[in-house]
Every structure is written in structure tokens, then in C-alpha cells.
Amino acid sequence: MNKTVLQIIRFVVLVLFQVLVINHIRLGGYVHPYIYLVFIMLLPFSTPKWQLLVLGFALGLTVDLFTGTPGLHAGATTLMAFCRPSIIKLVSGNIKFENITEPNLGQLGGLWFFRYVLCMVFIHHFALFFLESFSIRLMGQVLLRILLSVPVSIFLIMMILYIFKSEKKRE
Amino acid sequence: MYNLRRFIIKHHFVILFILLEVISVLLLANSQRFHRDRMVNTTNDVVGKIYEWSSEVGNYFRLNNANEQLAEENALLRQRLSVVYDTTTCTFDISEGDTLYKYIPAQVVNNSTNQANNYIIINKGKVDGIERDMGVISTDGIVGVVTDVSRHFASVMSLLHSKSVVGVRIKESQELASLKWETNNYRYGMVEDIPTHILLQKGDTILTSSHSYIFPEDLMVGTVEEFYPTAVDALNKAKVRFATDFATLRHVYVIRDLHKPELDSLKARLK
């Protein structure tokens, strides 16, 4: 399948899954997992940096349209996209990407992915929950939201990545 | 000029990042202002349609509950109607001029209860006569205020919103107060500004006040769960259990105040 078509399908499916399913799960008032970030995480390594930012902004804004919070997810996702190149450098260390064109669970392994997802999710959630409350007064509540939501998001994202990986093998 | 261009090309990543973040924060700041001054309309028909499709699937599983609830409400309304309904001639004794409010039924197509600012999307919009600042109620109690309208959908700022303030009245003492939400539990709100001489007890009823231009008087808001008297502050607080169950909200009514244009023009003349 054409790579661009695959990306578009991924974008649409992830956004719909986020706003129609995940956003309706109630796990107490503090746990809000976000999985649409997978789209930015799985973009090829060769994606131009400016494209990362534009795609991050567009992805966030699309989710914002559904949640009625213009700018909230856009801001957080743009920040995450901005940090992506540095995070990849940070978690890779000496790994060489000679034949690897995009973040791929099969080739890079579970540990690499876990560290990658952890950093990305943390930055996104941190920015998101702070932008959402827009004040220092609710600091304790915001930190609690971050601490409780990050593990759930990571768990769901890793699960999605594993499911996606097994489908790729079957093709 | 050449240097500027070189600078932009060299740092385009950072510059674009800052630009997009500034746009995001501006959008966000704008959306957090009081909804009357908002520039960007966030309600849109495509999003509404997608939510409607998705909620139609879910609705089939809740038909039983919804039917029961509507039947109960029907029974209640019939009871009230007996006052004005003449059974011998089957006519209503209400003249158009006396009716203050018109109720427009609508269905919730999307709803959230776990964000800091929750919005509800309903499947009625401009073509059905919905406008900004109209009150929304359910069978059990008040729900929120319409903030944005598109052709066929409207978004409603739920009581579960950090900026939500509703003028309320304590039924027992007739004292006025205001209702807010403390961003963590969808079952409870907080009534503030209760005068110190008023002592509330668990189970006391909170109703809407006549001072609000959004809700008719005496609609159910909730019941007092816990009373917090403060020695230092001059005003007391009380935790209130909402009469509306926001988690299972399906059928709502939008209230059209037929005297609002008149009131508005009067207020405009006073300025």
C-alpha cells in the first residue's frame, strides 16, 4: 500500500478511536489516556522536521475540533513533535538506523519503544494538563492527573503498537 | 534582508515551532474567555454528524431506560396538565401570550464528564431555533447553557465546566447563592456565597433563581450533601449533589425564553 495513504488512514482511525471510544472511558476523574499520539510516533525517520510540526499541529487541532478545546491538544502535540528528534537521539544512543526507515517495533525492540513512548507521552501529557488548567492554583490536581494518566496512555499505546506489529507480519 | 532570510532558513524549525505554539495558546486563551466574546465558532456540522452516528449505535442499548424515563415524565406532565386541561371539551386553557418558555427537545450526541471543562453536543441547531445563551435541562434538573450553534448542532457548556456559574436559590430560606463546579467529580457541585446566618442541612433543595436570564425560576438543581460553615470568611459553602446524572444524559430540553428579546432590548436601552 502507498505510504501516504497508510498515514492518512492511520490519522483518521486514531483520531476517531480517541474521540469516540477512549474519551468516553471513565476511570475516575483523574485518568485521561491519549492514544492518538501514535501517529506522530510512527512517522518515518526521514520526515522533514517542519513537517513533523505541521502534522503535530494538524493532528492536535483535529482532536480539538471534537473536544471543543481549540488550541489545547494542538499546543501539546506540537511541543511533542518538536521534541521528537531529540528524544529519538536520546533513547537510541549508539543504535545505527542503517536499514530502518521508520520507528518499527519488530526492528527496534520493545525496550527502545518503551523508552521512546515514555518520553513522548510524558512531554505531551505534561503540556496538555498544564495548558488545560491554565493556572498554578490547581498544581496538585494537575500533577495527579499527569501521574495517573501517563501509565495508562503508555499501556494502551504499547498495546496498539503490538497489535499493529502482528498485523504487519501477516501481510 | 539577506541575513534575515538566512536566519529564517537556518532556524526554520524553531521559528515554526514558536509560531504554532503561539497560535495554539491564542486559540486556547480566546476559547477560555466568556463565550459571548468568542471569535472562533467551535461547533461544526461534520463533527456533530460523526458524533451522531456513533451515539446512534449506543442508543439501541439504552432504549429500555430511555423509554421508562420518558414514560415517567409523561405521567408527571399529565398530572400537572389536569389543572389547565379540560377533560370534557379536550381543550387547553392556555393563551399564547401567557406562555413564557418554549421547550425544544434534543438528544445528546456527545458528552464528557472527566475533563476540566466539559461540553455537551446536542442534535438541534440554528434551523431548530437554538441560539446562544439558551438554558438546557433534563428531566431531573438543569444541565448547562448553549455556547455555540451550527446549522444542525449546538454545543452546551455543561455545569461541569470551570467557568460555569449559575444563580441559584435555597428553597427553604429563599436565599440567593451561586453554583460552581470544582473540577473533579461529575456528581457534585459547590454552592458559594451563602450568607452566614443561613445554616443548611443535608437534603436541603437548591433551585434556580429568578435572577438568571437563562433558566426559568424554580427548576431543580440538586440537594445539599455537605455544609461547610466558615468562621473566617463572611460567606459559607455547601457541596451539592446534582439532580442531573451527567454520566447517563440522553434526552434534554433547550429552553427558549419568549420574552428574552424584549428583556434584551430593555437592557440595551438602559446602557
Task: Give a topology summary.
The complex is a heterodimer of chains A (171) and B (271).
Chain A: H1 3-20, H2 38-41, H3 49-67, H4 72-92, H5 105-133, H6 139-170
Chain B: H1 2-10, H2 12-32, H3 45-59, H4 63-81, E1 85-86, E2 91-92, E3 101-111, E4 117-122, E5 135-137, E6 142-149, E7 154-161, E8 166-170, E9 176-180, E10 188-195, E11 205-208, E12 220-228, E13 235-242, E14 251-257, H5 260-270
Antiparallel strand pairs in B: 1-2, 3-4, 3-14, 4-7, 5-6, 5-14, 6-7, 8-9, 8-11, 9-10, 10-13, 11-12, 12-13
Give a verbal description of the structure.
Chain A has 171 residues and is mainly α. Chain A has helices spanning 3-20, 38-41, 49-67, 72-92, 105-133, 139-170. In chain A, α1 runs parallel beside α3 (49-67), α3 (49-67) packs antiparallel against α4 (72-92) and α5 (105-133) packs antiparallel against α6 (139-170). The longest helix of chain A is centred in the last third of the chain and has 32 residues, at 139-170. Chain A starts with a helix and ends with a helix. The mean pLDDT of chain A is 85. With 271 residues, chain B is of the alpha+beta class. Chain B folds into 2 domains: 2-32; 37-271, no CATH class. Chain B is 28% helix and 32% strand. Chain B is built from 5 helices and 14 strands. Chain B has helices at residues 2-10, 12-32, 45-59, 63-81, 260-270; strands spanning 85-86, 91-92, 101-111, 117-122, 135-137, 142-149, 154-161, 166-170, 176-180, 188-195, 205-208, 220-228, 235-242, 251-257. Residues 35-40 of chain B have low confidence and may be disordered.
- Order the strands across the largest sheet of chain B as they lie in space: 3-4-7-6-5-14
DSSP helical segment count of chain A: 6
Order of helices and strands of chain B: HHHHEEEEEEEEEEEEEEH
How helical, in percent, are the residues of chain A?
Answer: over 70%
Radius of gyration of chain B: 23 Å
Unreliable stretches of chain A: none
Shape of chain A: globular
Report the uncertain regions of chain B.
Answer: 35-40
> In total, how many domains does the architecture of chain B comprise?
2
Q: Which term fits the overall shape of chain B? A: globular
* Termini separation of chain B: 52 Å
Percent of residues in beta strands of chain A: under 5%
**Strand coverage percent of chain B:** 25-35%
